Amino acid sequence: MTNSPLAGASPRPLAAACPQQTAASIIAAAHDLLGHLAAGHRIDAPALRTAMQSAFGASDASGGWDWKTAYEAVEVAQLLFMRRYGPAIHARTADAFERLKLVERIARLAPTQTRRSEEMAAYQQFSTPLGLAWVVGFAADFHPGELVLEPSAGTGLLAVQAELAGCRLALNEVAEVRAALLGSLFEESRVSMHDAAQIHDRLDADLVPSCIVMNPPFSAALHVETRVTDAAFRHLSSAVARLGVGGRLVAITGANCAPDQKAWRDGFIRLQERSRVVFTATIAGSVFAPHGTAVETRLTVIDKVPADDPKQFPVSAGTAPDLVTLLRWLIANLPPRQSITAPAIQPLVASRKSTAVRTVVAKPRLVPAPAHEPSGVPLDYEVIDWQSPSDGQLSDTLYEPYTLQSIRVAGAQPHPTRLVQSAAMSSVAPPKPSYRPHLPDGLVEQGLLSDAQLESVIYAGEAHADHLAGSWSVDASWDKVEAAPDDCNTAVRFRKGWFLGDGTGAGKGRQVAGILLDNWLKGRRRAVWISKSDKLLEDAQRDWKALGQEPLLVTPLARFRQGTPIRLEQGILFTTYATLRSDARENRVSRVQQIVDWLGTDFDGVIVFDESHAMQNAGGGKSDRGDCAPSQQGRAGLRLQHALPDARILYVSATGATTVENLAYAQRLGLWGGADFPFDKRTDFVAAIEAGGVAAMEVLARDLKALGLYAARSLSYEGVEYELLEHQLTSEQIRIYDAYAGAFAILCAAAHKIAYREVAIMRRNAA
């Protein structure tokens, strides 16, 4: 019997023990249980309890260990058994079915896992049953000496199959105790602790596996409390991206994660542009039942060879009632592995070396990925003097070609399509800036941001570096803002905002991502991106990814229930105006309060109000029917701005406001109550601009640009040609049209008769 390092000590709660100590005790218990397996004896509850109490020096009742930890000790015992007796099983018979039979016989000696812990539920830690792990290894067809990656390695039951085949291992596991277990059990292997949904972006560029085996969580994600339906597919996509060309991936997922399912078909089509699904089959829930869940699962095999037709998939073999059937289907339908080539992965714009989440085990043999964060370099640009063209005489056109007027960015590429601005806007130049953004080295040269887009990043940073004039008092509801007296101890100053008013095609999303990235590289690792629709989340992630960043850092607020803490250490929180306006209810704080609690009242990062015109009528107004109350969305947007006075506010809209009173949401531009414009109150501002009409609005936009607070470019239509397309109606089409018109006339006449009849009845009844 192996003694625990904690034996003889006073009982110590499991939560208080460090991961290394817990892992050492689990391994000690596993060595004790190995004797039961070697003797062919079933591990029952009393035997398991005895081994755990001996290893931990305490009982489960005293909090020394829990049953989830005990089940992990059983799994480690199975691993140790396979490591010791696996070669003998292999030598005993060459028949795959006989080998599977022997492995399943050992698996049946383990107790059924009937109890769960909070961590097990949160991470969906359902380890691969030993028999299924062996079948996964059969499907993987390991080649001796190759590098095998397991992104969600758990307790190592899949990894040991590759080890027995003579493979090198790279293991990843985010749970601390399990990662410590892997570090002790696989001493010569790399062990990292990344979110496996981002494994491709986190690992070193030189780590290119030729085979990947995985059993990811089906619907759970880190820092997300609610169900994430595409969790398994995210893991799958990232793993395929990391897999070397010609390599093979074998994955266990939920049964519905299949190419023939409508929800996943488009995703698998995208996967098949660079890889090929060669086998898929559902597995009956009874296979996983010994490990605590009876849900149906799926075995999918993918080879890193582009499919001939990405829209064509192999027919699912069906639902395997047991592992013998699954093995038979694999033998009959699984093609042999392709030849392997593993070219070096090209780094993205910024250095993308992997980052260890935390130290796993304090032992030299454990090799965590080196800590490295994307770094930026100051953007180099030249300040220039602008002169209006043609001796100050503008052309008689409505729009003028757009050029950078106050700066010149060395090496920057022009916008892919010509840009223009209104004649009024072109008559003034923005002020000469001094702000230097930080961006990844090489971004400018690669043209990921054009010169006009880089100008936006510069001027947004320039505006955000200053504060509006005056000090202000904000009430507890964040609804009311008043000028603060000199002796007010709670007075705040509001940081200036910036307005991006570009039209379609200028790349507003890419510019927003550039502004966020600049602040990210300066250490401001939390931000908020608010837009009109949750469907724009993918666009936001696309624009963030286009600059070489991890798209999953853009996380939807909808994944956190209202009233619960937002558990993100860093990231860009994406939400909609409809979500933002949710008030407090049923002892749950409002969405605005939830965001403020996450950011902190001293937050100085970026808040993006995308499609900011959705906050129109934030201050109320007048209509033909009288006064209009402020809109809920507008009020919510103002509350967020009031609650976080030091936030860097970015307004984004091609149509900032249909009427001047709808600019109430844009308080950070200082249009009233400040030093830049002669309006003490918003009502004075609205009255003056409305009196001036469209011309006054043009002057306002021009002055905002001259102050460095606004930019508005549009795509040029110069050179665009169009042709009238005339369609000659056939006699049959004319007949059909006339028939519809005649039918409509009959319906209209009948409707009028009904209306007259109803009026006559009402008059008769009134008499």
TrEMBL record:
Domain Helicase ATP-binding intervals: 489-664
GO molecular function: methyltransferase activity
Domain of life: Bacteria
Cited Gene3D superfamilies: P-loop containing nucleotide triphosphate hydrolases, Vaccinia Virus protein VP39
Gene Ontology BP terms: methylation; regulation of DNA-templated transcription
Key words, A-Z: Methyltransferase, Transferase
Membrane-spanning segments: none
PANTHER family, alphabetized: PROTEIN STRAWBERRY NOTCH-RELATED (PTHR12706:SF30), STRAWBERRY NOTCH-RELATED (PTHR12706)
Name of this chain's protein: Putative RNA methylase
Species this protein is from: Novosphingobium hassiacum
